[in-house]
Amino acid sequence: MDQHKDLLTIGAFAARARLSPKALRLYDRLGLLAPAHVDEATGYRYYRADQAERARVVALLRQLDMPLARIAELVELDGATASDRLADYWAGAEARFASQRTLAEYLRGRLSGRSCEMYGKFVIETVDVPERVVLTESRHTLVDELPVWIPASLGRLEAGAAQCGGVTDAPFVVYHAEVSTESDGPVESCVPVADEALARAWAASHGRPWEAGVRVEPACRLAYTRITKAQVAHPQILAAFEAVEVWMSERGLDAVGPCREVYFADWDSAGPEDAVCDVAFPVGGFSPSWGSPRSSEAESGGV
């Protein structure tokens, strides 16, 4: 051991690094911090004194709940690059915390019985929508992926619509099954177009990798509420969907198709408080005496 006389035992190194020997053994198994030497006969681990800084950094990064794979990558980078990677990770973490904070407030409202207060801020209206030819793109996706996939898929479909007589109405997204952190739909992006024959030809040539298609969306009446850009985020948008469902239930109305989001405004230029989206359900069971296709607030009422 003369050649290793300057090395520290795991106990001495643990004291210097202010970590436990158990933590150091874990870091070794995970490939985050290997000993400078392992005695073949005894299995004892020995460390250099200058490894203490890396050990402390690893421990601190674990306190940030950084995945082990990312820690292993980060500690191999130079200082400036590692700092940038940590900044990127923390920005993402803060975004997740903000979303979780909103979800917690939403759940508190539900658990405390204040749901009616949440729903009361939504005004529900109705509108009749004619039959339309739509270009479509479908995908199984989780809720965290929607903010990326929705604009990307609608962008591709709107580009295709230029070859099909143009876009004739607001794009919309149909949820054929639940989309959450555990359920993946499927979801269908739809862009109404003018020419069915051209649409079918375009879809046939763009079937993969995007699963493009074309179909005729039947005429229907939608019960909907209009929401702002800030309210589109999950889980805020859940309250809007539930408000429409409560309104329908109170009037004995049934959903006759999957729920949807209708994007009628330019997303990029809209501010957080600008109205951009209608959360809607196709409904049946309306009385002809209800009057005009789009009811006023007085006719439809808030929830």
General description of the model:
- The chain is α+β, with helices and mostly antiparallel strands and 303 residues long.
- The protein folds into two domains: 2-76, Multidrug-efflux Transporter Regulator, Chain: A, Domain 2 (Orthogonal Bundle), CATH 1.10.1660; 124-300, Regulatory factor, effector binding domain (Multidrug-efflux Transporter 1 Regulator Bmrr, Chain A, Alpha-Beta Barrel), CATH 3.20.80.10.
- It has helices at residues 10-17, 21-29, 52-63, 68-74, 79-111, 115-119, 146-161, 196-205, 236-250, 297-300; strands at residues 8-9, 37-38, 45-47, 124-129, 132-139, 172-175, 187-193, 212-217, 220-228, 254-255, 260-263, 275-284.
- The strands form two sheets. Strands 4, 5, 6, 7, 8, 9, 10, 11 and 12 form a nine-stranded antiparallel β-sheet that branches. It has a three-stranded antiparallel β-sheet with strand order 1-3-2, covered by helices on one side.
- The longest helix is centred in the first third of the chain and has 33 residues, at 79-111.
- GO terms for molecular function: DNA binding; DNA-binding transcription factor activity.
- Pfam families: MerR_1.
- Residues 7-77 form the HTH merR-type domain.
- Keywords: DNA-binding.
- InterPro entries: DNA-bd_dom_put_sf, MerR-type_HTH_dom, MerR_fam, Reg_factor_effector_dom_sf.
